[in-house]
């Protein structure tokens, strides 16, 4: 680093200030935080951006290493999804939006995420990116020759109009995501600059967030109401458009033959199918039967029991139907957990929450239902550098020590791992601990019913679920709770009703998938974990967390200057979350399971960073395999 930059770093470091304030009784406590390092970015446009490291690929790369650049183009495929849809408008808070609507299949973002490097993006709709030395702004140049599906060019007017829409008029989630960006300014004929607010902490993630900015066509939306559900396929810019809609049941993504980005190196090996049918099923069992009958091609099964038992059919034994498992990426997060809604008075006592956690016998469930295919979730950031292990390190203690009187003492004295239960018994020791905690919280047993010691009020709550898999999983847990004298109802609700109840937090407890944070996505973390969004509808803070310590640690993760700093802050956050008992953790799979008919192909999957299966984006149709599958199925029919 030259002298000028060194002086710049020293100046910025001296200017770091105590920026986090929380209320403890009537006294404001200031917590000092300081950037561990301040990076200076080259003051020249780049073809990509990396969160923590140098770019792997040069601007003239032929293609990403993880794709098949020679994949055949053409053919069709199909996939199954449990649930329904009633809208193609992803800009609204209303309705259940179809899969892939609003994503990369239909719209181009400014940059594409690389799947083989942590937090790295390469120019797509943008031609280049320029980042301010102090991270106060990000500038892009719009690529020449990009146009919407109706042939109208994508212009600066679309960029400016879309930003105003996202920031001021779109769904609450979009408005919240763009709140840190103060404005967008046009800086040249095809260049524009995102400028972050003066009161916003400047982080690398804000830069990454702008990379995923996806323009909408102004000329299309300005004559339509973006706040309502819409079954009309919207106008896009990406490689596919929607056709053949059967409302609530299916629709087809058709490849756009003259898609403007066909020849870009970042798209080589992508988008090989001519047609992709997305089939929705109300019932998973019906869907599985349809898959095994060859009605559709692909399904990513997340039920370990079905993976172990449901596909042992003759077509699989003959190699026509494939079942594969891959370790994807380096992070699983919490995966699934039973959320306790702390907006309800019953769950505001941490002793009650801990007791309910103790009553859940994961080991029994894993043996009986999941055939040993799951691992217990001990962490919100399982299999990542942010997963806490053992006791806090000195660096973690430096973050946690100021809050010693505000967090459970076990944050400092106990590892976060759960004690294993008896996989073959009734979990007697844990149930006795649960009973003791409930009594300490004022809930005693009278006439085999758990009641308040002072009022006689019965302890009762509902568990709402959306899938039959969860119903089977929760039934033995409900039995355990009833043995504790608790009146529990398990209710399975229809998909649309579940969506609406989640949006308004209208539940006692519910099974939810808690998403992975392979990188610190601050907005997602804030939506899920911080006080600001606990009472905002249509967010993901399902348990109603309102904890200033968690708020502080989320910001430490979000503002980390290095991977190391992010991991340390993440581990500290992991510990505080664990001892809050706001979620009863289930497990995460030992791998990700793909079931598909062997008429489609894929490149090698998995690796350190790739955290998805790549379907359908980087898969392809294989005509020779398709002929073999058809021949094999015909032979099976004759044998019957």
From TrEMBL:
One of its GO terms (cellular component) is ATP-binding cassette (ABC) transporter complex. GO terms for molecular function: peptide transmembrane transporter activity. Keywords: Signal. It holds the Pfam family SBP_bac_5. GO terms for biological process: microcin transport; peptide transport. InterPro entries: Peptide/Ni-bd, SBP_5, SBP_5_dom. Residues 121-527 form the Solute-binding protein family domain. It comes from the Bacteria. This is Solute-binding protein family 5 domain-containing protein. It comes from OM182 bacterium MED-G24. The lineage of its organism: Bacteria, Pseudomonadati, Pseudomonadota, Gammaproteobacteria, OMG group.
